[in-house]
Amino acid sequence: MAxxxxxxxxLVSRPEGEPSAANFKLVETPLPALREGQVLVRNHYLSxxxxxxxxxxxxxxxxxxxxxxxxxxxxxxxxxVDSRSEQFRPGDKVVGMGGxxxxxxxxxxxxxxxxxxxxxxxxxxxxxxxxxxxxxxxWYGLVRIIDPQAGQTIVVSSASGAxxxxxxxxxxxRGCRAIGIAGGEEKCRYVQEExxxxxxxxxxxxxxxxxxxxxxxxxxxxxxxxxxxNVGGQVLDAVLSEIKPHGRIAVCGMIxxxxxEPIPMKNPQLILTQRLKLQGFxxxxxxxxxxxALKELGSxxxxxxxxxxxxxxxxxxxxxxxxxxxxxxxxFGKQLVKxx
Amino acid sequence: MAxxxxxxxxLVSRPEGEPSAANFKLVETPLPALREGQVLVRNHYLSxxxxxxxxxxxxxxxxxxxxxxxxxxxxxxxxxVDSRSEQFRPGDKVVGMGGxxxxxxxxxxxxxxxxxxxxxxxxxxxxxxxxxxxxxxxWYGLVRIIDPQAGQTIVVSSASGAxxxxxxxxxxxRGCRAIGIAGGEEKCRYVQEExxxxxxxxxxxxxxxxxxxxxxxxxxxxxxxxxxxNVGGQVLDAVLSEIKPHGRIAVCGMIxxxxxEPIPMKNPQLILTQRLKLQGFxxxxxxxxxxxALKELGSxxxxxxxxxxxxxxxxxxxxxxxxxxxxxxxxFGKQLVKxx
Lengths: 340, 340
Description:
Chain A is an alpha/beta fold. Chain A has helices at residues 51-56, 133-146, 162-173, 185-194, 209-219, 234-242, 269-273, 290-302, 319-327; strands at residues 5-11, 24-30, 38-47, 70-71, 76-83, 93-96, 103-107, 114-116, 153-157, 177-182, 199-202, 224-229, 243-251, 277-280, 310-314, 334-338. The model of chain A has no long low-confidence stretch (mean pLDDT 94).
């Protein structure tokens, strides 16, 4: 193989407040020769996800910060183009953490880094979305924390997103009522009409937690049994005010205020008076549940029963702008960058 | 049996703000004749508990409000003095919900209302405390929600109270480090020296959540694995700031502010970033766990390994004042009223 140039995006500075394109830098690096046991993957799609914002800062979080002047981490799907491992052959379709770059050199022996996937019935890009980390995130929070029973009402915020959309459809598959919360008429229409939620509330139409609570009450007059939280703040306050006794809340995402200060929970007494369970999680800590989750998610996608939408940016150079747009909610569905 | 006069305390008005003695009224009522299946119990001790404050109001809570002009509800231990049931004989020692009165007429057939207890190794009054509802509350929150492992650090607020004291001792029995939070030097000394906690923090010495958090950090430099919350507010904020990843918080009590408004939780984002579980509970909803809990609690008390203290008011007429004192934290240990 002639020397190949790998284009990569590095994090070169940490944002103060809002991230900007200046925090990133596109560089070109020659690919090193493969060592024994290594695999060269051509990345086809890069996944952009909100968690990456957390990694850009040095604050206390559940994960190590992204090191400066190194390739931004990120999930990828692609194809093996060269291999010095018996586990992979050129042509294999794989999912992994290839990062913001066109090629990734991967140690094939390191468990969990690279996984072969079958694209007969499931499109390759879906392994970054409905049949990937966002799908498993939805599955884990819903199935393992909320534990929904047929007939119960389940609410999910960011319902038009990759995670939220899967939460509602998985809940529907279990005989529940699914109520979404999303921003804007177009997203709400998609959530109801395309994803099949029973209702979707446009939070932009409601000026505060009390107004949002009233909208939830109208959509779920008998109360909320379970909630999948992607947002926090006023949305969580509103859901808490409408939740039923023994309600379960899976906490998957929490925004902070404009200045980075945490947004308080208005009425934590409800945890006691309604005997609630609130549980935070990150799906990477529950690898033992991935096979079961991926099996259900793959079957549902193959059967056309788990729908999703993708926002696809074209080419690695577009990744920073696409990521900044994602943080502002400009994407619609799973945000990807097409690299091939 | 000659006509016996039963002295009773009724709730005659609902408090606006702080309850007062005027909300209660002592009345004398002739005891009715027993019907078939009924038992007459002479109450020896009445238990006073914070939950009664909630029942005095009509607000949204987990239980029905106490009806006006009826005998205040409350747990009691006593002795059967007359019986028209085959299940109980005069002389039987029993625990039940006899209410604020000297005698109780109980339908023996109604499941769970009256339970015979063995006073060979456990004093009768302990069935209202360490081997009763407070003990089982401690056991359930610690064992079923916090699920402590040997070597872990467990914090409990109101550590000198009937529930809190049992939480720490049950944690110690499981090989944990127990850290109490209590109000005042005398209570803290009791928690450490008599109950055997590893440390106790006097919250009155710390002006805000940050100062309390610093004291917790000094007592638990490696962080907190589990917390049993009897208080909420600043205490919960302080514990949250020192909790370890995957920490579990059993929510058993939550105060509100002076005007009855809820006190916000300052940083709910920690639920996500630390992947916490917060769970509220009331022990009456978990009757299936009582036998296991009571068995352990009874054995520990009989063996002298579960210590407790009682504040005993003398005579039914003292019950309202003792209850108001309890709400102000004037009691020291389990608050009882001796009726015989």
